[in-house]
Design brief:
Elements (H helix, E strand, L loop, with lengths): L11 E7 L2 E3 L4 E3 L22 E7 L10 E2 L1
Antiparallel strand pairs: 1-4, 2-3, 4-5
């Protein structure tokens, strides 16, 4: 795994992230779904297309701090 921060490798977790953009009248933002795409063509967690999800490795430090580290 490529080193992207000072955290330990075991603090990096592989998740299915939804890359769909949510549109509101005043802003756009990414869907925050980290759910599993369970069967079929739709994510069971957010309802978006399974094709909008991608596997990424993100860092969740044990101390609870935010870490921007992520990689595909």
């Amino acid at each position: 795994m490529k080193i992207c921060c000072e955290h330990k490798p075991e603090e990096h977790h592989v998740v299915e992230l939804c890359h769909q953009v949510i549109h509101y009248p005043s802003e756009d933002y990414m869907c925050v779904c980290e759910g599993l795409v369970a069967g079929g063509n739709v994510c069971a967690s957010c309802g978006h297309s399974a094709g909008d999800h991608g596997r990424e490795r993100i860092c969740r430090p044990n101390d609870g701090a935010f870490c921007p580290c992520r990689s595909s």
